[in-house]
User: Fold these one by one.
Assistant:
Number 1:
Amino acid sequence: MAKSPRFWLSIGWLAGWSWTERAFIALLALAPFVILFIVGRDGGPVAGGFALAAFVALNVVVFRHGGWRLLGPHFYYDVVRLARRGRSTILRIAYILAMLGGFLYVFDDTPVARAWTPNDFARVSDRFTFTLFLVQNLAVIVLIPAYLASAIAEEKERRTLELLFTTQLSDTEIVLGKLTSRIIHLFGFVIAGFPILSLIQLWGGIDLLLIAGNLLNTLLNILSIGSFCLLISAFCKTVSAAVLSSYAIVMPISLCFASAMRGFPLVLQDARQAGERVLTVQDLGILTVVHLVVTAMCLFLAVVKLRESDMPALDQVIRASAPRPVADASGSFSAVKEPTLSTAIQEEPAPLPIIVAKPTKPPWVQASPEVLARLYSLPPVSDQPLLWKDRYLGGPSWLLSPLVFVPALPFVVLGAMVILFGAVASIGDPHAQQMWHAVMRFFYYVFLICYILGVGYRAAVTVARERQQQTLEPLLLLPIERSEILFAKLAGVLWHGWPWLLLLAGDIVLGTLIGAYHPLSAVLLSLTPWPMILFVATFGLLLSVVLQTVLRATLVMVITLIGLFGCTFIEPPVSYRPWVEVFAFSLQKGLTAHIDDGHKGNLLFVAVMLPLFAAAAFACWKIALVMFENRVRSSGPEV
């Protein structure tokens, strides 16, 4: 496909530059790298100055020759469209309220004296400033995948990306327009904290270099992480896949870096106060170069990937439809002549060939041996086809796919044998049983969290995906009750995660056999999480009914799960057990174990929480059913 005349990566873009301009810009751009290579950290400010000079000189030269022409009109349309949604304003208000809450927490956590000295005010100001930058960067990391990862994937889902290709917009204008329009809205979150930060300066104790360095670090995080999420959006075909993939990559890496490098990339410290092996504001010269290189690579790959599709190229279609030479009776080849109107009327039409469709198998069955293919054969359709569809739609679980199952099978068998023999050998040893008790608890939480995450995601997208794929209206034409449709959706959501339930049951059974769990504790561990699981499933179903798109339902579910896990696994004030397992592990030392007043309070707390989750699940189910029926009557077809 011919490139647009405004494709800025083409060689013709530099044709109007003189050799003096090219050499001057190249020397200024190369100077920061040379300085950092020779001087190191101490040359960071000088390298930053040369980089700024190169940027200014580049813009001067470019605008002398007509400007960048990188964004295009789609950039202005996207900025206005995002602003009219009103979502950015609501999120900025929530962000300011969160910062005020953090300020009150820091102020309340500081011991109050009758007369504070200036050093006391400076200490509180220092703590709050770092808390503000931490909350600010965490909010940015949470919001970037939601804003940037949906940019191109949203156009693919709506089938509007092909319309953009028919315009005079180049690939670069589309990608950079999407990036810049969303970065502008994210920059609004950064400047929303300026008034509060200005008030803190009245207390003193904060160097302006530290404030400016952390603000620049936040902007660099927005630029590089946003470019990476935009690249993921170019590779993914659906919004939910792009957003979840971005969260799965960005969140763990950012938190691991922050833990290992004492705050980076969330907070930068001062080199005059920080220790060794800590990235500080004095290293921003090197960090700026790294961020810009990552940004340039991600944007280049996104531009290259943008027009790639599964459709054949135009020249392949022309070659496939061109007349092919055929052999005549003498053995010579001649091209097939195109039929004219007269010959088409005189000649009888040739009978159409009968095409027999060959049965195809799913991709995972085609790539697997016959023995493994039996594992993925779907069961026959039952008397309840809707329930069968929601249980088995999408094929088998990814845990049983050949890509995961075949390489992991030897390790799983070996690990299970090691755990089994080690656990059996530790029977009768109190210290070993205590160690295995901790191991069983760890795997119990891992399997439980994985199952709850899967339930929450599938419940949030089950109805919204049917609506986006325009398959909900044919589903509503079936002569069945609306409650049967939602019940089938709920059953399918709970069924799809059965491998995690199997692993969870194996953990409980093995822990009971080796003495790590009390028998009644095993029963309670099996039953206690279900009110919370049902609440997550019904709440996700309610979100899927109320919200129109998969992206909105997924984002609300992610925020809900973060808050739910944060509240669920908080240790009670007088106990060392998360409240989910207070019942079960209160029996760990036997039924006759002494229970003090504090532990009785925990048991009472759990006795209230479990019925509360069950009641919330029932309420979400009823509300989802009412909302589903009302939406069907107002917008859906009548049966």
Number 2:
Amino acid sequence: MSNEKLVKKVLRMLPKRFAHKVTAIEEAQDLSIMGFDELIENLTTFEMTLEITEPAKGKGVALQASNSENGEENLAETLNMLVKNFNKTLKRFNKKPYFGGSTPAFTARDIQEAMVNPSVNECLADNLSDDEGDLTEEELTANYQLLFIKWSKLTQTYTSGEIERAALKKNNDELLKIVEEQNLEICILKDKVDGMVKGIK
């Protein structure tokens, strides 16, 4: 592959954030004489300046507004974000999932009570849809606690689903065994009938 084709191919494959740089390179330089190494150096320099000037993009779990109608998808995204940021949060709170004092902000009993409380979903929605800027550590902890409660609920649902699936699989295996036994019995009876038919002839 010629150097010119290689350079053009690389320029075509770059992501959209390089669009301005690609245009500048195509207008300023003759691609037929531009070296591949020169192009790579140019793009590397541009990418490093891009990373320095671009602010870090990311969603905070607590700041997600719920505009979409699809609640399960939003919940899945929120839980994924929670899992990704959980270790950072634990380090931030000195590896304790609660503030100050010697007692945790929530206990297993609190979680069990919250699971049967129908207002948990409303509380979760209220706390997740607040978009008033930066949250205090107390608000962030409260949001994580609510997400933890919701996660516990989903885990329980998943576990009960797994138990039900295992029971159905066991039932299915038993039914398959019965079908196999009946097929064997049918074969035996068929052989007896064939023997009787041959005996009559």
